[in-house]
Design goal:
The protein has eight helices and 13 strands. With about 220 residues, the protein is α/β, with parallel strands linked by helices. About 25% of the residues are buried.
């Protein structure tokens, strides 16, 4: 039996593991590793400090499906919608600029629920593998020890080293139940501000405004 290690439990790694399992059934043993204590990667969701069901998305905020992606990945979107992992984003978003035909979706249980959905089909553990799939950010791949450098030719390494990421900082503020947040929107983009680019009331964003309200601010470094 082939043994495959997938490094990274974000949406890329979790979907890769799920599709491999469905394609190869029980003819492959799949293990997913991640350095963090939870799944989701850049689709992380954090829980409130008081142990309630309140939560806030600290990475990606919602899923935008352009006409091209909705068509090319139709089966994945249909599956996530059928299992209610995704629901249409119906809350008011101030400042949203979408391409024509784009559909936006929220995750009632938080963005990390997408990765968790695909990882449900995994199982087993091994230390020796026939294949390794690296799905973490490129800078982390290039920092790996061992013989990875021997597997990359000069052009591949140059292409990887050219990858750049922009920084994001997120602040989640949790309020007691029934706290009034007197704004007419659920999500607002803040163009031109030197620090704040995005503000969301997460439960309102997910259509759960009657439960614990969570205000989340995503902050960019000054530009």
């Amino acid at each position: 039996m082939s043994r495959v290690l997938i490094v990274g439990a974000g949406v890329t790694g979790s979907l890769c593991a799920c599709l491999l399992r469905r394609e190869m059934k029980n003819n492959v043993q799949i293990v997913v590793w991640d350095k963090s204590k939870g799944t989701g990667g850049r689709m992380s969701t954090t829980r409130g400090p008081d142990g309630t069901t309140s939560s806030a998305d600290l990475g990606a905020q919602y899923v935008s499906a352009t006409q091209y992606y909705a068509r090319s990945h139709r089966s994945i979107y249909e599956e996530l919608l059928a299992h209610r992992v995704l629901e249409p984003l119906e809350a008011p978003v101030e400042g949203l600029r979408d391409a024509e035909g784009t559909k936006n979706y929220v995750t009632p249980a938080g963005m990390s629920s997408i990765a968790k959905h695909f990882l449900k089909e995994m199982g087993g553990e091994r230390e020796d593998f026939d294949a390794v799939v690296l799905t973490m950010p490129v800078p982390q791949i290039l920092q790996l020890q061992g013989d990875l450098s021997d597997l990359l030719d000069a052009e591949q390494r140059q292409q990887l080293e050219a990858v750049r990421y922009s920084s994001r900082y997120a602040l989640a503020l949790f309020y007691p139940p029934a706290t009034a947040i007197p704004v007419p929107w659920a999500v607002r983009y803040v163009p031109g501000h030197p620090c704040i680019c995005y503000v969301a009331v997460d439960d309102r964003k997910r259509g759960r405004a009657n439960q614990h309200q969570v205000s989340q601010v995503e902050v960019l470094p000054g530009q």
